[in-house]
Amino acid sequence: MINSPSSSSGFREEQMETASDPLAWRQHVPALAAAAAGIRRASDAWDAVSDSFCDDVGWPIDEKGYEAGKVARDAEAWKHVEVFLDHGPEVLASVRATARDADYAEGPISKDLRRLHGIDTTLEQAGRLHEEWEQVMALMDASQPGSRELYADEARQVRNGEGWHYADELSYQGAALAQAADYLVTRADQDRSASPDRAQAARARSTTGTRPAPPTIPPAPPTAHPASPRRSR
Q1: Is the pLDDT of residue 1 over 90?
Q2: β partners of residue 60
């Protein structure tokens, strides 16, 4: 079995607290799958045009266009990172609480579970970047209310640019998380639906295996009274 990756105690405690019944976290699985796909689309769209801004050896010849393209890619990707920050820890904790030892060793999601190695760190660091962004915004609100939007746009670009690394990681780790979660939720549904059938079968086996009652032994017939002796005359 491949053990679950370790991380800081605070993040692990949060995972344990959010692990719950599949009914509580299944609703987030499609959002995570869509977020991972969204990051890949942003990356593929940029890869498709990035060479047009460069010369034959890969150096940008249109630096303004090249930079604008990266900014657009990073901004689009970060929107999907925020989806993982909102729902990823809960789903990750539930996947690890639901997966069996055999799921790690072999089976449909064994590769997905192995790809989750390091996702704790990715989510932690992306979350820290998000917190730093919120702190910067709070300082701007307090000190520079008139020019907030100008500086906020610059700060947003810095956040998105630094966050691209985490977005790129989540395009693979996050997709694996969504696939493993979808499989485990489906299996949990099947197990629950099969439970009444198993219970009914167990009751049927119990009824079939009941020993019949022993036959009733009829009472012995009453003994005939002996004839009275004749008196001699």
Answers
A1: no
A2: 54
